[in-house]
């Protein structure tokens, strides 16, 4: 009894630990989401800051430009006045000055002084007519030349000036693409030289407006592809366009709704709505596959692409194929299987004793899970764990280490059930079989009988014209052992077993344990490549570096070649037998792979741990987690139990089979809950309630208990849940219990129950049910609630009260009144 209690306590502790673990995972996910949000906000703030800075810079530049313009205007005015004065005194000089082509000088100066003018230049076509007439332009622009420059220009020969003018014109004509072709801007940027004072004043008056426009010019107004434009253009981006995602990439097979919403920039609620329209009930954490995600993204007009990223695991197992020249012959790996007591261990021992020390004088064999023997200079590796259980366990983990299976059959016994199993295991693994008929030294040995029996299992001996090699042996005397080894080498020869020793090692863990002194120790059977001391290794979730290697003779070795068993020290934890070992090119990679595998294990464990409930039944069915919907049925009478069982089992369909794993009459007990927990079942109660222990256990074990009073409602709920359409709107909340201590019959009123409130409270307006031995015998409302003679609204725990039930008088002492309210559930 106490053991059971301990077991149960352990179980509940485990469940608690699991809950805490789940909560931590949830918190971690939440924290990750919040960090992401913070990062997004951060980057937005930076963007805004950037825009603000750009705007301030542009304003500053604009101000500088205005100042520069004002200064130039003043100079211009002075020049005009001076020119007017000179005109009066020296008309010929004026004439000469008028004929001097200088617009390009002014233009250059103007461009240098006011780079912003380039932001609104004329379109090339518009600019050209003016540029094609430098002589005429110069006549008009002459007054704007500063006096100093004008004087120096007078000394320049006309011919040279004309040439320069032409060159400049050509330069401007050949580079139209580098200038902005903003058609909105006035083509005045290069024309200062020819403007009159009035024009310039007009322009100055208009300038604030231009500035305003510059700020509102959209990027799209400019021709695309001009890098120079971005360099020179100092326009701030004031208008922040909302980001429109047209294409998104997902990098895994499935994606959570939350992450998907971030990728496509749509709210989770919108996505859930779309999924619902596709018939999928999902939550923010639900995983959706690429096809579904594509459909949803399509609804938003977003193209979705899948680019599966390479995991560390992919990189680890990625291997270049070996060339024919790289492949060298390797020893065969042999497993011995057979029925109990037919002599597997004896045979393995005999082979080892007879051959292992050859050439290794004084060598003491070590038990490391596998050993090698030598015959005529050729090696054979034996896996030292006899029996097909280990063989199959390894196969189940994806490790197929065995090249040849020896089926041991005792000559004095015959083929037994485990012999048949062993034969079938070897056959299903497609491994060649050699039959060793053992114990031939025994007087009642009958090899012919064994051969006869072998034919019944599709193993026709060679002697009888078949393919199966049968070798009579005695593990006791050693007779036939040499022949058996020869046959093994022969079969290996036919198999052409080869491996490339010149690559990173890959192998299988044959045995592993935690050694007090040396830490995790594992025997590795190298399959291909060469394992070396110092190599980075990973097997399952255990990783590390080869610190030391010991062979089957107890000798320290620095290298292990294909088919060689070695004991390896240096793992971070004990790997499992059957795990595949990889030597990794880098420490980091092995660590990453281990992390990935641990995450995967965790996810799978969580998946397995998640209990079925009607709320997420559809999701679990959809994910293929549930094939059977197990149900425990408890009802008040046997008739109901049967009726409910039949109705519910009829709901089975192709995807899910509804199975009543336990049915019974009476209250829902803790045992029912434990059974439901173990079988991942839902409990359906009809007119019965769970007792306190059951209630607590159900909370611990996360078992879904559904209570009904009408069969069709249960059927309706389960049908809906199976279709993913379950939408219960209300949830029952028990608010208190009162025990009936005494009953009184009052002629006009009916039965009055004198009660004691044991927990919670009894509320006059709440609903009530009457329980007798946890079986519901009435459900309805209170017709009265009194404290002594006074009507009461509610009576709390620890107080006495009198109550009566609406249209129900069959109240007995010991009954319990359960008071409850219905609350709407937010889904
Ligand atoms: N006479 C004789 N006895 C043998 C021979 N081989 C094994 N035995 C005996 O048979 C018994 C069982 O041998 P094991 O080697 O333990 O057989 P096993 O198949 O490994 O048995 P399990 O490990 O229990 O599956 C032992 O008492 C051995 O001494 C043999 O060739 N001749």
Description:
With 827 residues, the protein is α+β, with helices and mostly antiparallel strands. 41% of the residues lie in helices and 24% in strands. The strands form 8 sheets. A 6-stranded mixed β-sheet has the order 7-8-6-9-10-11, sandwiched between helices. The chain is flat. It starts with a helix and ends with a strand. Residues 89-195, 207-233 and 357-363 have low confidence and may be disordered. Residues 338, 340-346, 386, 438-439, 441-442, 474-476 line the site of guanosine-5'-triphosphate.
List keywords for this structure.
six-stranded mixed sheet, initiation factor, T_Tr_GTP-bd_dom, translation initiation factor activity, nucleotide-binding, TIF_IF2_dom3, binds guanosine-5'-triphosphate, 33 strands
Overall mean pLDDT score? 76
First-last Cα distance: 43 Å
Morphology call: flat
Overall strand count = 33
Protein name: Translation initiation factor IF-2
Pfam family, one: IF-2
Organism: Christensenella tenuis
Subcellular location: Cytoplasm
Topology:
Layout: H1 2-89, H2 91-99, H3 103-113, H4 124-131, H5 134-141, H6 147-155, H7 158-174, H8 197-216, H9 227-232, E1 247-250, E2 254-256, H10 257-264, H11 268-277, E3 287-289, H12 290-299, E4 303-306, H13 312-317, E5 328-329, E6 333-338, H14 344-355, E7 370-375, E8 378-383, H15 388-396, E9 404-410, H16 417-428, E10 433-438, H17 447-455, E11 469-472, H18 481-495, E12 498-499, E13 506-515, E14 519-528, E15 531-532, E16 536-539, E17 542-551, E18 556-557, E19 559-560, E20 565-571, E21 580-584, H19 587-609, H20 617-622, E22 628-635, H21 638-649, E23 657-665, H22 670-678, E24 681-686, H23 692-701, E25 705-708, H24 711-723, E26 730-746, E27 750-763, E28 767-772, E29 775-787, E30 790-791, E31 794-796, E32 800-805, E33 816-824
Parallel strand pairs: 1-4, 6-8, 6-9, 9-10, 10-11, 22-23, 22-24, 24-25
Antiparallel strand pairs: 2-3, 5-12, 7-8, 13-14, 13-21, 14-20, 15-19, 16-17, 16-21, 17-18, 17-20, 26-27, 26-33, 27-31, 27-32, 28-29, 28-33, 29-30, 29-32
Helix pairs in contact: 1-2, 21-24, 22-23
Guanosine-5'-triphosphate (GTP) binds at residues 338, 340-346, 386, 438-439, 441-442, 474-476.
